[in-house]
Design brief:
With 277 residues, this protein is an alpha/beta fold. Helix content is 43%, strand content 25%. Strands 3, 4, 5, 6, 7, 8, 9 and 10 form an eight-stranded mixed beta sheet that branches. A two-stranded antiparallel sheet has the order 1-2. The longest helix has 25 residues, at 22-46. The radius of gyration is 19 Å and the shape is globular. The chain binds S-adenosylmethionine.
Length: 277
């Protein structure tokens, strides 16, 4: 998901126009459908109290940071960190003016913030993308005060809906496009996640998995919304209309089995981990 911020394009699919950069579309489409429901669950588990200091790692367009800011109130502080400047630009422009969230462009593997400066570290659907997960978790622990909490989530294994999409992308667009979808769902083994968090020195590690059911827009809309919200937009822009049409026909036909009342239903397993410094 790096360096996608500069790519802005206009494409028409099925009478609908998709414009804007991937981060803008991520906030417009992905966040309401998937990011916000997941973030509400994550922030509820964090049980933030007024006045606490929270850091949202791999904050993207900032959905978790905004909810955290509401929960800690004006006496608290919230910071968001992400490696992608395009995501951060949307985060900056989306946060309500009353929420004084600080945004930092950096990798989770090297957090440019002082030791023991937060009560809570949150990380939603981000750790799977970080190459050095041990370094990222060690950094999260370093910036937590003694007794501070870590709450993170990661989705996976790949839901059927995304397996269909990844296979169709590989067939119609290019073999390498499926890699992105698979990376999104690459970290989901509860024992592995437990070991990673414990290995970074955290205490009281708890890892649970639960399957959620999310209602998405109709198939042809969700396909293009997702593509235009992610690095897939660049690859899909490089093929001709005919190939994009065959991708859509293939995916929509297979997704019919997942449609209820004209909406596509995503069954996704989410692993939620909590720990203490
Ligand atoms: C699926 S998005 C999740 C964003 C946000 N947490 C949310 O729930 O909407 C994954 C995010 O991880 C970020 N990311 C990827 N590698 C990273 C790294 N090494 N350090 C920090 N952020 C990273 C991406 O830029 C992207 O914004």
């Amino acid at each position: 998901m790096q360096n996608e911020g500069a790519i802005a394009m206009t494409q028409h699919h099925h009478g609908k126009t998709y414009r804007g950069s991937a981060p803008e579309n991520y906030e417009r489409y992905f966040v309401p459908a998937i990011g916000a429901p997941a973030a509400r669950g994550l922030v509820a588990i964090a049980a933030l109290r007024p006045g606490e200091r929270a850091l949202d790692v791999a904050c993207g367009t900032g959905v978790v940071a905004r909810l955290a800011s509401e929960a800690v109130g004006p006496a608290g502080t919230v910071a968001g960190l992400d490696v992608n400047p395009g995501m951060l630009a949307v985060a900056r422009s989306t946060a309500p003016p009353g929420q004084a969230i600080e945004w930092h462009e950096a990798s989770a593997e090297a957090i440019p913030l002082p030791d023991a400066s937060f009560d809570v570290v949150l990380c939603q659907m981000g750790l799977q993308f970080v190459p050095d997960k041990h370094a990222a978790l060690s950094e999260m622990r370093r910036v937590l005060a003694p007794g501070g909490r870590l709450i993170l989530n990661v989705p996976g294994p790949t839901p059927q809906l995304f397996t269909v999409m990844a296979e169709a992308l590989a067939r119609h667009i290019g073999a390498d496009t499926a890699g992105f979808v698979n990376q999104v769902f690459s970290l989901h083994d509860t024992a592995e996640i437990h070991d990673l968090i414990g290995g970074a020195g955290f205490q009281d590690v708890s890892v649970r998995a639960e399957t959620q059911s999310l209602r998405l827009p109709p198939p042809e809309e969700f396909l293009w919304q997702y593509v235009h919200s992610t690095p897939l937009a660049g690859a899909v822009a490089q093929v001709d209309d005919e190939r994009r049409d065959s991708l859509e026909r293939d995916v929509a036909a297979q997704w019919q089995a997942l449609v209820e009342d004209r909406t596509l239903v995503l069954q996704v397993r989410m692993v939620v981990a909590t720990a203490r410094n």
